[in-house]
Amino acid sequence: MTQARSYPDGVVMNISRRRIHLPVVDAPTVIDDPECIWCGRLRSKHASPVDLGDGTTMVPACETVNGGGRYPGDRPVRLETRPTIRPLGHRLHLASRMSPRDAEGIAGSLGQPSKMPGAAYGLDAFRCRVGSRLADDPASTCHGCYAKKNFYRTWRPAIVARERREAGIHHPYWVEAMICLIRNYVDSGGEASFRWHDSGDLHGSWHLAAICAVAEATPDVRHWIPTREYEDVVAYLHAGGRIPSNLAVRLSAHYVGKAAEVPPEIAHLPTSTTHRKGDPPPVKRKGAIVCHAIDADVNMCGGCRACWDGRVTNVSYRMH
């Protein structure tokens, strides 16, 4: 392509444009935005602190618990902080001031298991206390745990998501963040049936207290939590804790083909068991059922919500 260019003395020259190819060089990478060594996010991607209107602000769990990844080398030891259980009205007020993005910055994301309706919140199965002791016993229900193998162990997005949640449960505003996330999910058309710990388990009675606080603040949502941490449930009730009517705390049996052997203080709570193909369910009492999801073509719950119903005294699952 030729372009005419005029000069002050009246001379006109035709100048041909040339494509100039510059050499490719390896420019040094400047790291101005380091990753958080706990969750792997860029620190700039952490949610910004949000004014809660009461003189306090909330920041993501990694910022609060682990210094936002400022520490070099190995991951720091997690501080044993705990969520704050505020009065119900205060809980609802603070949750309403959060955006879903802010809430996710605190608590991490919700999961949605393909088998089940609604959302779920899974933690790291390698941090289960009772489950870790049972894992080496071939007779236990935790032997060959699905949440310790396959993509649970190798797929980085899933690993990072659980790390965020593990940090999040120690955040002082975790309860309000979970209320915000669950409310947003349901208000956006999601199923009002929430599953706690499709992987992982309770970390203490304080953890159960926080989950009960979330359930109490979302009364139109059915909640279900299976647990083998019987002592945490006992400690919570002994301390005066109350389990909301919309939360089914289902005590999981430790061994295949056997009923759950639970302390007498919590014998009134619903349970779950497992049995092998061809064997009868280990519990036969009024209100007990057998889960038939595995018999369906797609191994899904379909229209059944028995696990979320505390009136169902025992659910027995057939081993895969």
Write the SSE topology:
Layout: E1 2-6, E2 12-16, E3 50-51, E4 57-58, H1 61-66, H2 88-97, H3 100-107, E5 120-121, H4 129-134, H5 151-154, H6 156-168, H7 174-187, E6 193-196, H8 205-217, E7 222-227, H9 230-238, E8 247-252, E9 271-275, E10 288-290, E11 314-318
Parallel strand pairs: 5-6, 6-7, 7-8, 8-9, 9-11, 10-11
Antiparallel strand pairs: 1-2, 3-4
Helix pairs in contact: 2-7, 3-7, 7-8, 8-9
Question: Summary?
Answer:
With 320 residues, this protein is an alpha/beta fold. The protein has helices spanning 61-66, 88-97, 100-107, 129-134, 151-154, 156-168, 174-187, 205-217, 230-238, and strands at 2-6, 12-16, 50-51, 57-58, 120-121, 193-196, 222-227, 247-252, 271-275, 288-290, 314-318.
What can you see in these coordinates?
The protein is globular. The chain has a seven-stranded parallel beta sheet. Residues 27-31 and 67-73 have low confidence and may be disordered. The chain is an alpha/beta fold. It contains nine helices and eleven strands. It has helices at 61-66, 88-97, 100-107, 129-134, 151-154, 156-168, 174-187, 205-217, 230-238; strands at 2-6, 12-16, 50-51, 57-58, 120-121, 193-196, 222-227, 247-252, 271-275, 288-290, 314-318. A hairpin with a 5-residue loop joins strand 3 and strand 4. The chain has one domain (31-318). The longest helix is centred in the middle third of the chain and has 14 residues, at 174-187.
